[in-house]
């Protein structure tokens, strides 16, 4: 089954490219963004606008409560079902997002459901994080799985704990497990794209995006979430763009300082995303100036 994947770092223009491809082939978009799944979190997660969603149907956006646990295994199961339904209706699925683990899990058919769980170990690791900080868990993970330790952000505590747990239970780094599953033949015929901006250009785009988010009401969005009772300790509220504004609202910094922190965090995240995607030899890097035209041309050659 054919599957188009538009991957890449934040602010690279993925959404526009995915919509262009989907409209050209009469397809539908399957989001692969671990933050855009959450309800009420629109501006800070850069969800497609109402106008963009009107151009073609988007799936797996805006359906999880901010305080609801949602795993990559759950995402993978849902994504497979959505993609299968799109194919059944004779349309082309276009996966779009920057969450490498989501994309990897679907394209490579990673069986997360087979992994064991140790709730006691998870509680112990959570307590270490609360006592000594998330950075301590990254140190522990570095000794077990240096590759995952470099990929994962300390604030993504759930995945850091899962990576430690997986290695301790199986004796194998989760990064090695994921790499092995890449060798398994996928149920899909993926054609994967990424827009290759110069790093300085990408960073400028990120900085401007943050400015636009603030202009569009990011502070009010975060304030509403807090007023609705969502704790700042939630995984969703620890996302870049939310935790910094929470600190500002609690009086811990100025708005200018919060803005700069969001920009810095976003640039660092983009760097990690680029590292993730560039190591996948299947991904075709596109010139930003001709990305849509080139993607359509390459897709035509692939699916015809």
| Overall average residue pLDDT | 93
Sketch the major β-sheet.
6 strands, parallel
Total discrete domains? 2
C-alpha end-to-end distance: 13 Å
**CATH H-level superfamily title of the largest domain:** P-loop containing nucleotide triphosphate hydrolases
Into which percentage range does the β-strand content fall?
A: 5-15%
What does the model show?
56% of the residues lie in helices and 9% in strands. A six-stranded parallel beta sheet has the order 3-2-4-1-5-6, sandwiched between helices. It starts with a strand and ends with a helix. The chain folds into two domains: 2-109 and 184-303, P-loop containing nucleotide triphosphate hydrolases (Rossmann fold); 113-179, Orthogonal Bundle (Histone, subunit A), CATH 1.10.20. With 304 residues, it is α/β, with parallel strands linked by helices. It has helices at residues 14-25, 50-55, 72-88, 100-107, 119-132, 134-144, 146-151, 157-170, 174-182, 199-216, 218-227, 243-249, 255-278, 291-303; strands spanning 2-7, 28-31, 58-59, 93-96, 189-195, 283-286. The mean pLDDT is 93. It is globular, with a radius of gyration of 19 Å.
């Amino acid at each position: 089954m054919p599957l188009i994947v538009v991957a890449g770092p934040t602010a690279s223009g993925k959404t526009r490219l995915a919509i262009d491809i989907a409209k050209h082939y009469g397809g539908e978009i399957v989001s692969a963004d671990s933050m855009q799944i959450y309800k009420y979190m629109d501006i800070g997660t850069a969800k497609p606008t109402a106008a963009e969603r009107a151009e073609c149907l988007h799936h797996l956006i805006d359906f999880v409560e901010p305080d609801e646990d949602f795993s990559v295994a759950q995402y993978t199961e849902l994504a497979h079902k959505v993609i299968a339904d799109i194919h059944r209706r004779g349309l082309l699925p276009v996966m779009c997002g920057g969450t490498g683990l989501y994309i990897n899990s679907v394209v490579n058919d990673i069986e997360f459901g087979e992994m064991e769980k140790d709730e006691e170990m998870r509680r112990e690791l959570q307590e270490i994080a609360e006592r000594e900080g998330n950075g301590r868990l990254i140190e522990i993970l570095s000794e077990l799985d240096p590759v995952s330790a470099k990929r994962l952000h300390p604030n993504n505590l759930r995945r850091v704990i899962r990576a430690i747990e997986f290695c301790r239970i199986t004796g194998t780094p989760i990064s090695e497990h994921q790499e092995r599953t890449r060798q398994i033949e996928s149920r899909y015929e993926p054609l994967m794209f990424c827009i290759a901006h110069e790093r300085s250009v990408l960073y400028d785009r990120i900085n401007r995006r943050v400015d636009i988010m603030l202009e569009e009401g990011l502070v009010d969005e975060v304030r509403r979430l807090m007023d609705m009772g969502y704790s700042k300790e939630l995984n969703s509220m620890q996302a870049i763009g939310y935790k910094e504004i929470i600190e500002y609202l609690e009086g811990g910094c100025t708005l200018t300082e919060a803005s700069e922190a969001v920009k810095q965090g976003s640039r660092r995240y983009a760097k990690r995303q680029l590292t993730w995607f560039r190591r996948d030899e299947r991904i075709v890097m596109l010139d930003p100036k001709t990305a849509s035209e080139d993607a359509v041309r390459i897709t035509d050659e692939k699916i015809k």
